[in-house]
Write a structure and sequence with these properties.
alpha+beta, 45% helix, 23% strand, elongated
């Protein structure tokens, strides 16, 4: 290949030699090629062209072997590759000496060796060293990382070879000897640190070297300094690792001293063991009482539900009878004897109604205890919780003090109703025990509520014996009590403190000996959530007659509801959830549907779920009736479903108000 300004020189290689070279190098994994110089007419080398290349060379250049012969360097390779080695190839041709170096062809790192051939020829062999270079770089990085780890750790590490020359020493090991790593490196250990000769450390190292084994021992490295030493043989090196255990030895020494003091004070230890035994017995008693309370709570929930159902139709029928008899007793045509008998009967019915109301309050308080294990916080009326505590603690207070109330205008507190009631109950009982019996007129227990910023404050004060500063300081400690053995476990106030803190509040106390004590409960304010509620009871003249469906599996309850509502409205009764669904399939023209939440076959929740699928337009007319026994499913349902509910037993006026406020029928 030539032009007017350049010429090529024929390479004096016989075809047989090229054929032999091609045969020998065809399968070789390394690239091999023959180039020849392209000179100008004046004799200067302008370029190089390929005469021959094996398949590995073609692959390295991203070509097929047939493409390369006759091609110039710049046509095939970039300036970063072989084409950029033009000056080097010229130097090889003109000097007649081989040359080796590295360069990059694409993403591949190459090691190239150029050998001059006669008459402007160059034999170029290329080897891919990318992987080996990466391995070397990775090894260097790993060694650097290991060195960094050994230098940055707070422990001692060094190695010696079989001639006891130090092959590595980290800065902590050098610092332990008072020397620098540079003065120790490659020196014989016993010459560099003669203070080690004849020590247990030297004996351990020599045993490990002789046996090619492992040693673990403690070594005193200073007056008050100890190290845990590990020595092991690894190939041609002996490695030593030591960790400072001075603090551990100090703790051990302190423990030994403590054990010695305990042995010398055996009587004191026995007294301590007796106190601990008493505390454990008190804790066990408290656990037993907790289990009894839990069982009582479960019993209260079930019994409360069973009482509320018959109590509903007892109170309903009493109210109905009072309402029916009152107009008769006022009729002017009734004789004096008849009026007297009717008034006496009305008075008896009213007293019976008051008794039923007292039963309802007692059942409600028991159910409050039954819900004490629920952890959900919500808006709580602190006055109602205080009244609950007063009603439950009255047997303790009745003979000791008068209860005075100083209630302020306070918003609901973020709390747990049952747990807050338990806290107030215990504080009231605690106040009663602080007051001697027999002087009822002189002593007071005062309940005070007020708002302070974002908090609701409740104070329970008494005019009892008070507490000394020492007793006040320990008042909330578990198992601390000033009462005689067997009369108190000392857990009450500590449990109250835990309950208040679980409601994100705080419980504190102040006291003056001889004048009384004050316990203050601080609780965060909570806004009441908006739930569909029961409408206010109101009397409306000429109210329109409506259709009402009552669903309950208690026949007496459905009977009393029919009796209360039937005078003004059309009442239809279903005695089970299944019967209600069948009835609503045939006739859904009801203005209000009263449905019991817990029934035997299908619960009110099941009825709601089925109607939500089939007739969702009926759900807005539902009012759920509850007797106070809630399963986990029932609690979750009442939280999630935005429908009004009424507790058994209920007021007739509330029933009438719910019917009168029923939403208009659609469809």
């Amino acid at each position: 290949m030539s032009s007017g300004t350049e010429t090529t020189v024929a390479l004096p290689l016989p075809d047989s030699l090229l054929a032999a070279l091609e045969e020998a190098e065809r399968e070789h994994p390394e690239a091999c090629m023959v180039l020849r110089a392209v000179r100008s007419n004046s004799g200067s080398i302008l370029d190089f062209e390929w005469l021959w290349a094996n398949p590995a060379a073609a692959r390295a250049l991203g070509r097929v072997p047939e493409f390369l012969p006759g091609r110039r360097l710049g046509e095939v390779s970039s300036k970063d590759g072989i084409a950029g080695r033009m000056d080097l190839l010229r130097q090889v041709v003109e000097s007649g000496r081989l040359h080796a170096d590295h360069f990059t062809e694409g993403d591949i790192l190459m090691q190239g060796t150029a050998v001059p051939l006669r008459r402007d020829g160059v034999l170029l062999r290329l080897r891919d060293i990318t992987s080996s270079q990466r391995v070397e770089e990775g090894l260097r990085e790993t060694l650097d990382w290991v060195r960094d780890v050994l230098e940055s750790m707070p422990d001692v590490f060094f190695t010696v070879d079989t001639d006891w020359r130090i092959t590595y020493v980290n800065r902590n090991a050098a610092a332990l000897t008072g020397r620098t790593p540079e003065t120790l490196f490659r020196r014989v250990l016993w010459d560099a640190c003669p203070e080690l000769c004849g020590t247990p450390f030297e004996r351990a190292l020599r045993e490990v070297a002789a046996e090619e084994s492992y040693r673990l021992f403690e070594l005193r490295t200073g007056r008050d300094r100890w190290h845990d030493v590990h020595v092991w043989s690894s190939g041609r090196n002996i490695s030593t690792y030591a960790r400072d255990i001075t603090d551990k030895k100090r703790v051990q020494a302190e423990r030994d001293a403590l054990l010695a003091r305990e042995r010398s004070g055996r009587l004191e230890a026995e007294a301590l063991a007796q106190r601990r035994t008493h505390e454990l017995m008190a804790a066990r008693e408290r656990l037993v009482q907790s289990e009894k309370l839990a069982m009582a709570g479960q019993l209260a929930a079930g019994v409360g539900h069973e009482i509320n159902n018959p109590l509903s139709y007892v109170t309903g029928n009493l109210q109905f009878a009072v309402e029916q008899l009152t107009p008769l007793a006022r009729r002017p045509d009734a004789g004096p004897g008849a009026q007297g008998a009717l008034n006496e009967a009305l008075e008896a019915l009213r007293e019976a109604r008051e008794g039923a109301e007292r039963i309802r309050v007692i059942v409600r308080d028991l159910q409050t205890f039954a819900r004490a294990d629920e952890l959900r916080l919500g808006p709580v009326d602190v006055h109602a919780a205080l009244e609950f505590g007063v009603s439950m603690a009255m047997t303790h207070l009745r003979s000791r003090a008068q209860v005075e109330r100083s209630y302020g205008q306070v918003p609901p507190a973020l709390a747990h109703e049952a747990r807050l009631g338990q806290v107030f109950l215990h504080l009231l009982i605690n106040a009663a025990h602080a007051i001697p019996s027999g002087d009822f007129e002189r002593h007071r227990v005062t309940l005070t509520t007020r708002r302070e910023g974002a908090w609701v404050l409740v104070e329970v004060s008494d005019t009892g014996m008070g507490m000394t500063p020492e007793v006040l300081q320990r008042a909330f400690e578990p198992f601390f009590t000033t009462r005689p053995v067997g009369e108190g476990s000392g857990l009450g106030l500590s449990i109250c403190l835990g309950l208040v803190r679980s409601m994100h509040g705080e419980l504190t106390a102040t006291s003056i000996p001889g004048l009384g004590s004050t316990f203050q409960v601080r609780l965060p304010i909570a806004e009441r959530p908006v739930h569909p509620g029961v409408p206010a009871v109101r009397a409306e003249e000429g109210a329109s007659r409506k259709r009402v469906l009552v669903v309950d599996d208690e026949p007496q309850l459905t009977s009393v509801l029919r009796r209360i509502l039937g005078r003004q409205h059309d009442v239809v009764v279903a005695h089970s959830g299944r019967e209600a669904l069948t009835l609503l399939e045939q006739d859904d023209a009801f203005d209000r549907i009263f449905c019991d939440l817990m029934m035997a076959d299908l619960t009110g929740m099941d009825v709601h779920a089925e109607l939500a699928r089939r007739r969702p337009q009926l759900l807005s007319r539902f009012v759920f009736m509850t007797g106070g026994s809630f399963t986990d499913r029932a609690r979750a349902f009442l939280q999630a479903v935005p429908l009004p509910r009424i507790e058994k037993p209920f007021e007739p006026g509330v029933l009438h108000a719910l019917v009168e406020s029923s939403p208009p029928r659609t469809g």
